[in-house]
TrEMBL record, chain A:
<dbReference type="Pfam" id="PF01315">
    <property type="entry name" value="Ald_Xan_dh_C"/>
</dbReference>
<dbReference type="InterPro" id="IPR046867">
    <property type="entry name" value="AldOxase/xan_DH_MoCoBD2"/>
</dbReference>
<dbReference type="InterPro" id="IPR037165">
    <property type="entry name" value="AldOxase/xan_DH_Mopterin-bd_sf"/>
</dbReference>
<protein>
    <submittedName>
        <fullName>Carbon monoxide dehydrogenase</fullName>
    </submittedName>
</protein>
<dbReference type="GO" id="GO:0016491">
    <property type="term" value="F:oxidoreductase activity"/>
</dbReference>
<dbReference type="Pfam" id="PF20256">
    <property type="entry name" value="MoCoBD_2"/>
</dbReference>
<dbReference type="InterPro" id="IPR008274">
    <property type="entry name" value="AldOxase/xan_DH_MoCoBD1"/>
</dbReference>
<dbReference type="GO" id="GO:0005506">
    <property type="term" value="F:iron ion binding"/>
</dbReference>
<dbReference type="InterPro" id="IPR000674">
    <property type="entry name" value="Ald_Oxase/Xan_DH_a/b"/>
</dbReference>
TrEMBL record, chain B:
<keyword id="KW-0411">Iron-sulfur</keyword>
<dbReference type="Pfam" id="PF00111">
    <property type="entry name" value="Fer2"/>
</dbReference>
<dbReference type="GO" id="GO:0016491">
    <property type="term" value="F:oxidoreductase activity"/>
</dbReference>
<dbReference type="InterPro" id="IPR036884">
    <property type="entry name" value="2Fe-2S-bd_dom_sf"/>
</dbReference>
<keyword id="KW-0001">2Fe-2S</keyword>
<dbReference type="InterPro" id="IPR012675">
    <property type="entry name" value="Beta-grasp_dom_sf"/>
</dbReference>
<dbReference type="InterPro" id="IPR001041">
    <property type="entry name" value="2Fe-2S_ferredoxin-type"/>
</dbReference>
<feature type="domain" description="2Fe-2S ferredoxin-type">
    <location>
        <begin position="2"/>
        <end position="78"/>
    </location>
</feature>
<dbReference type="InterPro" id="IPR051452">
    <property type="entry name" value="Diverse_Oxidoreductases"/>
</dbReference>
Length: 783, 167
């Protein structure tokens, strides 16, 4: 490892612009003649639109256009779709209701976009938006998923009878039921996974620019995957053909899944730009983000976990109701199915598993993937149940887990996944040691003497990352392939551009991808530029989510580097009159191994472009591309241990220690990986302790600002103790598993296991806020 | 509409602005200083923190007209030419940022915090005083580390300065 190579803690190249205020986010973009959009959104969770009167708004100062859904429909702009087909167990396809980017006949959640106003200034657009007069006839609303399945619930979409989108199953129900019947012990729980709002700090924004002369559209958007945005807007929403639509995602201020999807606003900014003949920019305010960004989680499940007399798990049966909100967002259907039920084996050897999942419509914001996406829900369910089982059976939670660990690989689970590599005991041991698990009893006693309740909890998670492979996800219903592309351009003087379909919105690709090149060719990372986020520069890509940029995106780069290396060696061998097999690349030069003969990297590059002296038949230039499609998912795994101290007088929970021991396979930049883990844990602790999304019964979102929705702040969290072990992933050329979601997946059950341990109860609702914890403590002392 | 004039990053600037214009929008839209960000509508997130007459202020909580006559420092004015301010350097060295959106506000808050605590900082103080700045990426771990490191660097710098003066 060089000082800038793979494995080095290299400070980030991209930081300079961010720390000096020179970042370029969509809101910072200005194009000549640009005007501003404001949306009129539904104040009702469920209502018929009787009349839309825009006359008064049209006459307001600065107003350029006031546009409605009827006009959008007349122009042929398509409905928003969910791109992953799920079939119910009776074989019928999922029941997808129509989602018009601007509602024209009915609104289905508070925040549903109805009218867009374009005006000279943002203030004028907002003033005019307030003057739009819409007559609604309110309908009964339902926000709770189980209630939406009741007979008395209002019907939200005509396409989905009883609000049921699909009733899907995975696994062997007969074998599972038989094993439960024969079990020595069965642990049964009801598990609720609370709804979360992703809350990237940069609100979503879009700038649409229609060039009349060229009949061409440009969209600057806060996207994790601009190419997917172009594909979907072109192929399904009829915005423009692909060659007439350029999508640019410049610096993007966090995503966490919420910026994967193509939302109404970017489609409307493009369409409105053509309608009004001005570039149109929209920037969400925070309340709009709360109302109209895709939310995450929101599962209600029952679980039965069966054990034999030796405390080995014999079966797992899960029944889940997943709330998908008012419309099916782009990947909403795969989250509670193939990203969830396929992970229900966890780190354990479970012979029989059966999961049933019902996805339902409610009058709430659409729900889709949020950091972890399905895997946090699976992990929470499993690890809460494991903990409860250990307590019921009177055995150590750590040893119960250890006893049931999968220890030989590859391992085929009963729920599709084939785990390729791992060492779960290594992570468990590392976490227990770092947490001084053995010394806990003493700390608990000391806390008790101080009038505090101390608890410890653990969680052993596994996830499937590197979302891919295309053929596999295609067979499961995905509408897209999940490979990644890369292009490596060696310039004539030896500097290098790497074009990638991955998108960096905080992950540090400009540094880590350059480290990969440094490792291979010894060129300084400052002479390597990473190009991403623009469909005019990078031909095609699938973007960044599901911890896929390292395992899939960098693997594509590695494949392209292979090709560059092969050609570079041929050129060098020719120049040095040596055998190509004897050429090695070291310290920025191509050398004949065992001799002092060498040609500097830049000279080889120059030779490729002057083409004065190339091997016979070789084309000039040095540029290679690769499309990489892996053969399997990757399986990061680890063990988290959380220790809490609760003040029984106030119900305030302090996290006194949080330990993470992860196995991410090979690591490119440990500093960046640790940062990903820190951030993920903070979001997981947020879910467990702080973040509650509350709709009232009429469908009003009560937590639609930072005054009401508790974001984790610095003084809510400790410093984290993190470490990694490494069983390299055999499925990709770099041995990378991915690290982006682990923290958010592994931490919530560790926190709740610690709190329930401290109080001596079986379960507590997330977020375990001080009032919830206080009430739980009071309930235990009443008798 | 009002005529305002103020000093921003050492330069006298002015303009005509609507009375309802917030300082943050004046900085971003009139002056093109887009390093100061807007992350919420309720003065909670701190992405918009600037220094007004030497104090950290959420520029979304102040009208531009209120700032007339004031001296403002934004993230763009913090570095000394090509040389990064110690807080900027520490955020880079300790990976105190990921997506970068909250970063300008964090750095301006941190600079103010360090200035107010010449005696030095402890982790608990840093965490408590970051209450008005939200970051969704880093879990604050490395932000806290960066601020503590910058505080030490700046204390050493100040001590050296004093020693030079004494000599």
């Amino acid at each position: 490892m060089g000082i800038e190579g793979v494995g080095a803690r290299v400070a980030r190249k991209e930081d300079k612009r961010f720390i000096t205020g020179a970042g370029r986010y969509v809101e910072d973009m200005v194009v000549p003649g640009m005007k501003h959009a404001a949306f009129v959104r539904s104040p009702h969770a469920h209502a018929e639109i009787k009349k839309i009167d825009v006359k008064k708004a049209q006459a307001m100062p600065g107003v350029i256009g006031v546009l409605t859904g009827k006009e959008l429909k007349a122009d042929g702009i398509g409905n928003l779709i969910c791109g992953w087909m799920i079939h119910s167990k009776d074989g019928s396809p999922m029941k997808m209701g129509a989602w018009s980017p601007l509602a024209f006949d009915r609104v289905r959640y508070v925040g549903d976009a109805v009218v867009v106003v374009v005006a000279e200034t943002k203030g004028q657009a907002r003033d005019a938006a307030e003057a739009v007069d819409i007559t609604y006839e309110e309908l009964k609303a339902v926000v709770d998923a189980p209630k939406a399945l009741e007979r008395s619930a209002p019907q939200i979409h005509p396409e989905a009878d009883g609000n049921l989108i699909f009733d899907w199953e995975l696994g062997d129900s007969t074998a599972t039921n038989a094993a439960i019947k024969a079990a020595a012990h069965v642990t049964r729980m009801k598990i609720v996974n609370n709804r979360l709002v992703p809350n990237a700090m940069e609100p979503r924004a879009a700038l649409g620019y229609y060039d009349k002369a060229e009949d061409h559209y440009t969209c600057w958007t806060t996207s994790q995957n601009p190419h997917l945005a172009r594909l979907v807007m072109s192929a399904f929403y009829n915005v423009a053909p692909e060659n007439k639509l350029r999508v640019i995602a410049p610096d993007v201020g966090g995503g966490f899944g919420s910026k994967i999807y193509i939302y109404p606003e970017e489609i409307i900014c493009l369409w409105a730009s053509k309608k009004t003949a001005v570039p149109v920019k929209w920037v969400a305010d925070r309340t709009e983000s709360f109302l109209a960004d895709a939310h995450g989680r929101d599962h209600v499940s029952t679980v039965e976990m069966a054990f034999d007399k030796d405390n080995r798990i014999t079966a797992l049966k899960v029944d889940t109701i997943a709330n998908l909100g008012a419309y099916m967002s782009l990947f909403s259907s795969c989250v509670p199915t193939y990203l969830y039920a396929t992970l229900l084996s966890g780190q354990y050897d479970i012979p029989a598993i059966h999961a049933n999942v019902r996805a339902v419509y409610t009058n709430t914001a659409p729900v889709d993937a949020y950091r972890g996406a399905g895997r946090p829900e699976a992990t929470y369910l499993l690890e809460r149940t494991m903990e409860t089982a250990a307590r019921e059976m009177g055995v150590s939670p750590a040893e119960l887990r250890r006893k049931n660990f999968i220890t030989s690989f590859p391992h085929q689970t009963p729920v599709i996944m084939n785990y390729d590599a791992g060492d779960y005991a290594a992570s468990l041991d590392a976490a227990m040691e770092a947490a001084d698990y053995a010394g806990f009893a003493q700390r608990k006693a000391a806390a008790r003497a101080n009038g505090k309740l101390r608890g410890i909890g653990m969680s052993c998670y596994i996830e499937a990352c590197g979302l891919a492979p295309s053929a596999a996800v295609g067979s499961l219903g995905a509408g897209v392939g999940l490979w990644e592309s890369a292009e490596v351009r060696v310039n004539a003087a030896g500097t290098i551009e790497v074009l990638t379909g991955s998108h960096s919105h905080g992950q540090g690709h400009e540094t880590t991808f350059a480290q990969l090149v440094n490792q291979r060719f010894g060129v300084p990372i400052d002479s390597v530029s990473i190009v991403h986020g623009d469909t005019d520069k990078v031909q095609m890509g699938m973007g960044t989510y599901g911890s896929r940029s390292g395992a899939v995106g960098m693997s594509a780069v590695a494949k392209a580097l292979d090709k560059v290396e092969a050609k570079a060696k041929k050129i060098a061998a020719h120049l040095l009159e040596a055998d190509e097999g004897d050429i090695v690349i070291e310290d920025g030069a191509l050398k004949v191994t065992g001799t002092d003969r060498q040609v500097p990297w830049f000279q080889m590059a120059l030779a490729a472009y002057t083409a004065h002296n190339l091997p016979g038949g070789m084309e000039p230039g040095l540029k290679e591309t690769s499309f990489y499609d892996p053969s399997n998912f990757t399986f990061p795994a680890g063990c988290y241990v959380c220790e809490v101290e609760i003040d029984p007088e106030t119900g305030v929970t302090e996290i006194v220690q949080f330990v993470a021991a992860d196995d991410f396979g090979n690591i490119i930049n440990p500093m960046i990986v640790e940062g990903q883990v820190h951030g993920g844990i903070a979001q997981g602790i947020g879910q467990a302790l702080l973040e509650g999304t509350r709709y009232d019964a009429s469908g009003q979102l009560l937590t639609a600002s930072y005054m009401d929705y508790t974001m984790p702040r610095a003084d809510d969290l400790p410093s984290f103790v993190v470490s990694t072990s490494n069983t390299p992933c055999p499925g990709n050329p770099l041995g990378i598993k991915g690290c982006g979601e682990a923290g958010a997946i592994g931490s919530p059950p560790a926190v709740i296991n610690a709190i329930t341990d401290a109080i001596g109860i079986t379960d507590i609702a997330m977020p375990a806020s001080p009032s919830t914890v206080w009430a739980a403590i009071r309930a235990t002392t009443k008798h | 509409m009002s005529d305002i004039s103020l000093t921003v990053n050492g330069k006298r600037v002015g303009g005509v602005t609507e009375d309802r214009t917030l300082l943050v929008h004046f900085l971003r839209e009139n002056l093109g200083l887009t390093g100061t960000h807007v992350g919420c509508d309720t003065s909670q997130c701190g992405a918009c923190v600037v220094h007004v007459d030497g104090k950290a202020v959420k520029s979304c909580t102040m009208l531009a007209v209120q700032a007339s006559g004031s001296t403002i420092a934004t993230i763009e004015g913090l570095a000394d030419g090509a040389e990064l301010h110690p807080v900027q350097a520490a955020f880079k060295e300790h990976h105190g940022l990921q997506c970068g959106f909250c970063t300008p506000g964090m750095i301006m808050t941190a600079t103010d915090m360090i200035n107010r605590h010449p005696e030095g900082l402890e982790e608990a103080t840093v965490r408590a005083e970051l209450e008005g700045n939200i970051c969704r990426c880093t879990g604050y771990h490395n932000i806290v580390k960066a601020i503590l490191a910058a505080s030490e660097t700046m204390a050493k710098g100040a001590a050296k300065g004093k020693a030079r003066q004494a000599a």
